[in-house]
Amino acid sequence: MQSTSSTMAEPLAPPPLHQYRRVFADPVVAAFIAGGVAGAVSRTVVSPLERLKILFQIQSVGRNEYKMSVFKALGKMWREEGMRGFMAGNGTNCIRIVPYSAVQFGAYNFYKRFFETSPGTGLDALQRLMCGACAGMTSVTFTYPLDIVRTRLSIQSASFEGLGTRDTRQKLPGMWSLMKIMYKNEGGILALYRGIIPTVAGVAPYVGLNFMAYESMRGFFTPEGEKNPSPIGKLAAGATSGAFAQTCTYPFDVLRRRFQINTMPGMGFKYNSIWDALSSILRQEGIAGLYKGIVPNLLKVAPSMAASWLSFEMTRDMIINFGNYGEPEEDEQKYI
């Protein structure tokens, strides 16, 4: 009897290490981790162009502070603010993009399970578009407050006349301080979600088109007789798919930026609704107003998406190989 109770009192042995490793072989887990890495890498690479795109987007009619070529605008940013200007808002952007990208890639692989007839069978173009759209909406909902704060951080030190003269020695509010100011002075939690409707309207088709186009381009750049493209092929597929998706949905991005700063004084516009914003931009700035900043954006998108997809696939494969150590090797394409 004593030996029985003694045996029952013994602690259970921990599960073998391979059971923990197998968690990382799950497509959703691997995509979630790799997506976070991909987001941080891609946004840091193109931070100056990302900020310049925002400055172009928010410049309403009659404003000339950044009415110049991309390279002259980058020079102006460097002269006035130096490296800090190039990286303004990037810390917040990375804090935002890591969970955003992680949720997006993880959610895409999660939603795939509802369309696949069996694991790894793959999706057609329409199914990839739908899964990507759902993944985009999911990621935006989780991370939008960080996006709107990043936009404010990107422009608060820029030389826009209506924002007043900036003392370069003045300490500007950081991410959390700015978030508290917005919450307190601009309407509570709703202030942190201002502009989310045009954002979701633009992100859903963008992410869907991006995933759909990448798969098509991935097949195009795969050499005959091979299962997967080379790293250069993946870079080319990512750049092409990103540029295509962004061009199709760019006006939504302009609307998103305008609404994110709609309550800031001195910007030259106050919109009451999406329709009011759209009609005002078309009336005052023409169709070109919906594509302000698209040149630095396309210069940004190509290297950004190329770096994102390549770093995603490399990181994901490393994680899956770690989880599948000692198991038969699986085709990486089923995890996209």
Structural class: mainly alpha
Low-confidence stretches: none
The CATH class turns out to be Mainly Alpha
Most strands sheet:
none
Task: Give the overall average pLDDT.
Answer: 80
Strand content: under 5%
Briefly note the CATH topology name: Mitochondrial carrier fold
Keywords:
MCP, mainly alpha, 12 helices, 336 residues, transmembrane, Mitochondrial carrier fold, MCP_transmembrane
Protein architecture, described:
Helices cover 67% and strands 0% of the residues. The chain contains twelve helices and no strands. It has helices at 2-9, 17-24, 27-45, 47-57, 70-86, 90-112, 125-155, 175-185, 196-220, 231-260, 274-285, 294-323. Helix 3 (27-45) runs antiparallel to helix 12. The chain is globular, with a radius of gyration of 23 Å. The mean pLDDT is 80. Pfam families: Mito_carr. It is found in: Mitochondrion inner membrane.
